[in-house]
Amino acid sequence: MTIDIAALRIGLARVAAAMERDFEELNAADGALGDGDLGVTLTRGMRAIMAQADDLPEDLGRALLACAQAFTKASGSSYGTLMATGLMAIAKELKGETTLDPARIPDLVAKARDQMQARGKADLGGKTVLDSLDAVATATAGKTDASALADAAATAAETVLETFRDKRATVGRARIFGDKSVGMDDPGMLAMARIVRALAARDA
Predict the structure, then answer these.
(1) Which end of the chain has less Cβ packing within 10 Å, N or C?
(2) How confident is the model at residue 33 (pLDDT cuts 50, 70, 90)?
């Protein structure tokens, strides 16, 4: 099984639907530790991507670059910027390619993590989306079967969310809430768990 532009469109549609579904939940989570607009950010970004989904080129690198640009135009938030940065990192790796072997996904996730970490000037362990991506990259490394990889990614995104729930946020806006962040999900990590589950077609 390989991933092509048709499979990418299906994945994007799943994420867009998940963001619409979880709109209020993401806003509420962000309202507790941030600006309260994460659901707005993600639904606007995905709507912008879906508006041009049918016109995306077969070149996966160019297609993901177009997605990143659309997302950026629709959302000026810090999370939106980080998401676009991750997409652009993957787009650079896939430039000129029309198919993707799922076995390469762990490395691509790691590339996105590293570029987002550099852009956000944050460390792992701070209770952010970087920890989610790191967990997914680690859990899927070495897996070549698409179904096993999807299972591992979805499980890792949920598990790391639970692992960090009782930790104190030390990075980003959430850090100003100090001990209040203990026992609460980081909004960005929650959003990434929903995104990964949607991409992996493992939504409940």
Answers:
(1) C
(2) confident
